[in-house]
Amino acid sequence: MVTTPQAPPSQAVHPVYVIGGGPGGLAVAATLRARGVRAVVLEKSDAVGASWRGHYDRLRLHTTRRLSALPGLKIPRSYGRWVARADVVRYLEAYAEEHELEIVTGVEVFRVERDGTDWVLHATGGRRMVGSAVVVATGYNHTPRLPAWPGRGTYEGELRHAREYRNPVPYEGKDVLVVGVGNTGAEIAADLAEGGAARVRLAVRTVPHIVRRTTLGWPAQRSGILVRRLPVGLVDLLGRGLARFASPDLSAHGLPRPDTGLATRTRAGAVPVQDVGLVAAVRSGKVEVVAAVEALDGREVVLADGSRITPDAVIAATGYDRALEPLVGHLGVLDAAGRPLTRGSRCPRTAPGLYFIGFTNPISGMLRELARDAEKIARRIAKGRR
Ligand SMILES: Cc1cc2nc3c(=O)[nH]c(=O)nc-3n(C[C@H](O)[C@H](O)[C@H](O)COP(=O)(O)OP(=O)(O)OC[C@H]3O[C@@H](n4cnc5c(N)ncnc54)[C@H](O)[C@@H]3O)c2cc1C
């Protein structure tokens, strides 16, 4: 890996710029390099894999080691089937080394503009870089999203986004409310309950699909891959049947089975929650399910059922925004929800040479999809140069 805090040297033939040094950006750079195309990764933090460095301590991949590897380097067997967060970081570092990637750290790209057939990138310190193509790999989980709850600005309690959560130590003996039951909220609630918080409540607006990570040794991810291309209605039906014996019934604890299908939910952006401790914690009463948060009022949190509670801390696992508007919004390449209109080897019609990777949340595992999309993008760019 070549990392340098300076601007990359100017080139007679413009390189392909890859914005973001996470798994998606690294995979694209490696697959381009393998095809003889010069790719420069621009990463705003000081190292690759920034998002994985910042995740909570106990996180492990919920996709299997074999189905999470990026092109051209296996994840070491010694990392086990469910790879730990720190090992994901080690793997990404090794990946950049192995492929001798050209990475410029400490450079944030603020805006991308078209200039004839080239692309101009405006970045940290007034840098202006010209690329023959650009791959945007800035991450699905880019900017922490906190709901605009009434009273948020004057809330007197401790309120943090889940991105800031590392481990339960600061919450020992405390009464904590976790808001949101995606994979992150579910795992943080379980972590707090196991780690000594005095009371853990989980505020739920929409009941999630909860699946076991494996059933009789069969990983949920493999099922996701098998059903991925089937019609949504059929997968919803299969999921309903399967849930009766593969998913626990937590109705008595405030988590009834969802009334919308698993695939319908996934299509709307909500992948099922993989159980890594929540089910046991809810069953044992260590995590109490409560209604959604409606507002904050002084020291109190107002819930949708009208009750008011006063936790010591609120952790909002309420998701992230893509935040692509300042970067590429002016190019007409985003939909109304701010997501790229294209993915993989396809470019927006109005922006040939502009690619996006990592902006979907598939049931088959994002790392697996990143690896596949990287190959497609590299193939397309390399073909265009011949
Ligand atoms: C808690 C959690 C657990 C996950 N677990 C799994 C799992 O088990 N299996 C799986 O397949 N997927 C998982 N994912 C989903 C996905 O695989 C990861 O989020 C993965 O890191 C996505 O890679 P990425 O490269 O698209 O984005 P990121 O990893 O977010 O990388 C984006 C990079 O771009 C940089 N950047 C952003 N903006 C700019 C800019 N303007 N200029 C320069 N640099 C910029 C960032 O600093 C960052 O390094 C998980 C996600 C989360 C949040």
TrEMBL record:
SUPFAM superfamilies: FAD/NAD(P)-binding domain. Gene3D superfamilies: FAD/NAD(P)-binding domain. One of its GO terms (molecular function) is monooxygenase activity. It holds the Pfam family Pyr_redox_3. Keywords: Monooxygenase, Oxidoreductase. Its EC number is 1.14.13.-. PANTHER family: FLAVIN-BINDING MONOOXYGENASE-LIKE PROTEIN (AFU_ORTHOLOGUE AFUA_4G09220), FLAVIN-CONTAINING MONOOXYGENASE. This is Flavin-containing monooxygenase. It comes from Streptomyces roseoviridis.
